[in-house]
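Q: A reviewer asked whether we had any structural model of the full assembly, not just the individual parts. We don't, so I'm hoping you can provide one. Inputs are below.
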Amino acid sequence: MTDHPISQAPDDNRSDPETPALEMQHISKSFPGVRALSDVSLRAYGGEVLALMGENGAGKSTLMKILSGAYSADPGGEIRINGRRVSIDSPLAARAAGIAIIYQELALAPNLTVAENIYLGNEPKRRGMMDRAGMNAASAPLLERLGVPFGPETIVSSLSVAEQQLVEIARSLHRKSSILILDEPTTALSSRETERLFALVRQLREEGIALIYISHRMAEVDELADRVAVLRDGCAVGTLARHELSRAAIVHMMVGRDLSGFYVKHRDPLAVFNDVVMDVQHLSDHAGRVRDCSLTLHRGEVLGLAGLVGAGRTELARLIFGAEQPKSGRIILDGMPFAPRRPRDALDRGIAYLTEDRKALGLFLDMSCAANINLGVIEQDARGGVLDRKHGRARAKNAFSSLGVRAASPIVSVGGLSGGNQQKVLLGRLLETGPKVLILDEPTRGVDIGAKAEIYRLIGELAAKGLAILVISSEMPEIVGLCDRVLVMREGTIMGEVGGNGAAEITQEAIMEYAAGIAA
Amino acid sequence: MTSTTSSALRTAPQQVSTSRERMRSAIQAAGMLPVLVLLAVGFHLLGGYRFLSGQNLSIVAQQAAINIVLASGMTFVILTGGIDLSVGSILAASAMGGLIVSLMHGFGFLAIPACLFVGLLIGAINGVLIAGIRIPPFIATLGTLTAVRGIARLMGGDRTVFNADLPYAWIGNDGIAITSTLVIPWLAVIALLVVVASWFVLRRTVLGVHIYAVGGNPSAARLSGVRVGAVLMFVYCLSGLLAGLGGVMSSARLYAANGLQLGQSYELDAIAAVILGGTSFVGGIGSIWGTLVGGLMIAVLTNGLVLVGVSDIWQFIVKGLVIIIAVALDRFRQPAART
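A: Here is a predicted structure for the entire assembly that you could use as a starting point for your response.
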């Protein structure tokens, strides 16, 4: 790192030397045996967006948990709010200090109304009774200020994820928070919703709030950040001012190496895929979220399924995998009709599905990596229902080395690994079943940049081996960089195809036109 | 690129040494064992040095046996994230069935199979309600708890059924004599066999892995190809079957069965044993050895408090407090999960 081109000095290159809204100095945090943070100093000013970047495991979550009062830092460091030293030893203390965090997993009571959530734990009372009318009346202007399309009496569970996020922001504003931390807020948002959120972030910046924006997505940081602070392996690597921002510089700081040629383009525009593995014909579901979808998947092909969040891509994948039952249509697999009643049927016929939500629908977080990897094949490994543990251990070890999972050993529980390593473990489970068709739903969601590159490489290798791969992704560069052909879904139907046998180049513009409904 | 990747990407905070992990799981497995030992030694000192005598220990083992058998079944159920409230009632119904068959001339040899069959049948009904119709386990087994209690009373015409020549009475009253004073009761042997068999199923078979998987994350289990319904069916059938075995043991001890009184609130002791054993109430985490220790703790408390001369009323209060305190201490021992 000696040849690093960017100044490692703290961020005193700001024009006006006002007091930072938040100043963390020499913050360290040790857990038994590991040092998650060492001597991190960070400043955030009112009226600016500070992007906090770093790979999974770099210490961002630990730092945020110290700010939110979930962890207490090791002695020696200090936290100042508007120049005043504070001790944040509980979530309540964090709230009193004016710090609010919007987590990836939202913390709302879904069965209550918007206003009730905003006032949760802080309900206005009149003569000992909850003052519901006053609460609704007071929430209304707040919601108006955020420009949301719903009222204070809406039940939260009826809102979309994006709207629920706005409720959380409204709640933090109601609590007069002056420091707002957004932890990967766009993970579950469509691009339109993301735009709306960005506008709001800018508005809050104008209002003088200090925003800390944690994200993996370079494009968002490019668009929003006034400054970027980068963490690596628990250390603050440095801060970049607006005029120093460049994708290459940030990546370099995050991983300590150059990632030129990150999106490896494997696509050969002249490649012709003739060997049909799976033919999906006019598939529709009962809920109307998938309507008359047809697609053909070939051996050795990486087929992209693009579209906005909520376009029905996951629903289509779940129909093919047997997790949901179709209303009409049929699937031909290897020339034979295939009607899976449950995921087991699909797995038995060589279809594997990587879920977009690996924590809720994929992994068993309390179980070991080995158990997670072996789960799909333990029946084959077993003799008369009794586990073949030696075989299982060998299998897990193999998967570990071939996928490059970084963990102490296969017996550690998967819940303690970083997102990228968790994803590799889950991929390992699918690959052990020896699939012919691999459906990957957002394969790099919440995965750090290094693991991302490895997953891309793996997808390329698997396709070269003859697997038919369907990739669902909301990240446009990923779809463009990875796929041989792209289908675009919108509102439950497949709108069109980009690329294809020897056809034109795949461009983000062409995909966007179908996804947004511009091209018919 | 890949060779530099691995060194550059090494994220030190994520690394947990293997030996540390082993240590942690060993401590977790030991769980309440130190508490059990402390209790036993404490009662021995307070109770006039009688508690740890061979004779008393075999009484404790006998008292613990039925609860441990029920708690073993309960462990399977709770590992899937469910609960079986009906085991006490099943025990009563199966004991009634066993005694009635034992009184039939020429069919006495079918008494034990009858007990087990009644248990398995009611367990299967629980399974169908929960896995098939998807009634929440608490509600489904609350229903069978009540209904089966009624059936048990109906079976004997609401009277105690008695058989002085019960063909399988040896199960409840004999044992393996080691020395003249130390006898290992058959009840204890059965309980231990059930625990060992449970351990084998949970830790060495595909089914066991599937049980943990269903409890840990049912949606992921289904998507990974686990037949969740079949796993649930199995655990409730097993819990019923083991409650039936409890019926065999209980009636063998008493030469009698009473549909109203037998097995009353046994389900609570069984659940307490599982919880004391460190099994997570939401499923997916726990071990049968913990349940064994938990079951023994309850028996030691019951026996020890009598030995020390604590009144019946205070026994209840002390037992309840011990359960709460033990589990509360357990919360401190478990490190907070870090993501």
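A: Points you may want to mention in the reply: The interface with chain A takes residues 1-2, 4-6, 8-18, 20-22, 204-209, 212-213, 216-217, 219-227, 284-285, 337-339 of chain B (CB under 8 Å). The radius of gyration of chain B is 22 Å.
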